[in-house]
Structure formats: structure tokens, C-alpha cells
Amino acid sequence: MMAGKHLVVGLGNPGANYAKTRHNAGFWVVDELARRHDFSGERSQKRAQTQDGSIQGARVKLAKPQTFMNRSGESLGALVAYYDIPLERLLVIHDDLDTPFGSIRLRKSGGHGGQNGLRSIIQHLGSQEYARLRFGIGRPPGRMSPVDFVLQPFKGDAAIQADELVGRAADAVECWLVDGIEVAMSRFNGDGRPAKPAPTAEELNARLAIALRAHELSPRDPGPLKALIALQKKLCRIDEAAQNHLRLAALYETLGKGALANAERVKAVTMQPSLVDAQRQIANWFLSQDNKKKAVARYLTLAQHFKQAGQPAAAQETIERALTINPQHPKAQKMRAELPGKTDEESKA
Fold this sequence. Notes:
- The structure is a single chain.
- By secondary structure, this protein is of the alpha/beta class.
- The protein has helices at residues 25-36, 72-83, 116-125, 146-150, 157-179, 181-188, 201-217, 222-234, 238-254, 258-271, 276-288, 292-308, 312-325, 330-338, 344-348; strands at residues 6-10, 40-45, 48-55, 58-65, 90-96, 104-107, 131-136.
- Strands 2-3-4-1-5-7-6 form a 7-stranded mixed sheet, sandwiched between helices.
- Strand 2 and strand 3 (48-55) form a beta hairpin.
- It is globular, with a radius of gyration of 22 Å.
């Protein structure tokens, strides 16, 4: 029994071939929530990838069923039954053809509306009395079939707008967790009108120049740096955005806002896992807050980076650091056992 815990489920299809398609909008929102709130330790449960953490003080399990869209109910139904989740604490996020692109809609309950993931969920739960968040993707153009449309990615300005919509959908989930479905509906449900066109790259670059000048004039004001980061992400200037997350972290440190500084470092390393010093700073900050669980999780994330980068000695050292914090940590022990031996060059170093 997970008393008081909420289950937030994003629908989509597993695998790299589907990762960027419209049908995976639910996965994107769950990933954004995990990134924002530093969820860690993704694991496989009941044919879903799940993570546990807290959002705005609420205990939350995030889940992405791996059964493919049309059989989403098999995984979700098993999670609800196993953890005894009340349906009033369940929220399902899915793409929706009948909601205009650029809009989101929350509903307390309802039918499947032709969405096969919802159809499967209703079948396995035996109820349609659960909240859902519709991520509007609009109707396919011309004579394109809906099946082809949902399995294609957003492109160009539409991709930028979709990224913004992911953020708004995550905001809506946070509101649902804190204030309930009625308040979330009143704040986030659109009026059904077509969304405003997304800004062009030229317009974004003009805004970027303004934000950069504002930062130069007020280097101790976090606002311009935040604007810079948001614009750089929209322009896919990820390396620059990551570095500015670190600059913002340093600024928050000087302002005595350690928690905000650490959150910015987490955002930077999520974008660039190779920022090793920042990874270690994050772990050390969690230790300073006596949060050993998150410190260990961060060291293991760093160890995984070293492993993928072909640096087993660095991975080994990092895992040992995690084990000094929690000698019985099962994942750390498993990672240590799976590491290959050191190369001749590393042994001589």
C-alpha cells in the first residue's frame, strides 16, 4: 500500500524509433517532471519504467508503460492494483488529435475518445473515473492518416512550440498535485482556439541579444540568465544553455540560495553528463543536507557516465565513493561487480 502516493503515467511507445514522435508526448511530460524534480533511480516495474520522488511536497510515482500504446492498460492496471493506488490519485498524460496543437486539456474522467491507450486503460481498470491530461497535437494535414501523423515527429517551429507545451503540461501536473483537478482545469484548460504561431529563429535570436545585454547590465540579477537559458534551449544551443545553468548556480551561491544553486547544476548535468565537477558538487551538496540517498544516486549517475565514456577506473572510484556512504547499496554493488578490470594504461597511471 502506497498511502498518500500519486501515480502520474505518460503514454507512448518504447524504443528510439518512437522517442520523438507525437504519440510519445506523454513520455516527454513525465521526463520533464523527473528532470525538474531530480527524480532518479529509474527501474522496471510491471512492464513500465518508473521513478519515485516528490513534487511540491506530494509523494509521486512516475511511470512510462513499455507495452506499446495500444496495450497501455496492461501495465497501468498492474501498477494500480499492486500499489493500491486510488483512482483519484491517478493522472494519465496522452497525445490528443482533437485538442488543437498548442493547447492542453485536463479532465476529471471520461471515455477514450478513440485514443487506443485510454481504451486499453479503461478496459483494464474497469473504470473511466480517473484524471487525464490531453496534450494537443491537432489533426493531420490533408489526407494524411491519423496513424501516420501520430508516428511522425514535430519539425521546425512546431518542435519549438511542442517543447513549450511540454513545460506547460508539466506545470499543469504540478498544479493538479497541489491544488486538485478543479483548480488545474480552471488554470490550464485552453479555449480551443488555435495557438499563436511559434516565434521564428530570427525572432528568438533577437530576444537572445536583448537578454544577453540585460545580463551584462545586471550580472547579479538571475532573471536575464534565466531568459538566456530558455532562449538557448529553444534555439538548440544546448552547450551554451548548460554553461549558463552553471553560471546561474554560481550566482545563486553568492546570494546564499544553495538549494536553487544545486537545482541549476542538476539541470546542467542532465543536458551534459560530462560536466564531472558539477556532478560531484551536486552529490556533495546532498551530503551537506544529510540526503545520503540522493548523494549516492548522483555518484552512480556519474559512474554510469564514466562507464559509457570508457573510463572504468574513474567509474570504479566513483562507485567506491557511493559505497562509503551506503556500503549495502544494491545497485552500487551490482555496478561494481559488472565493471571490467583496469586497462594497462590505467594501471600505470
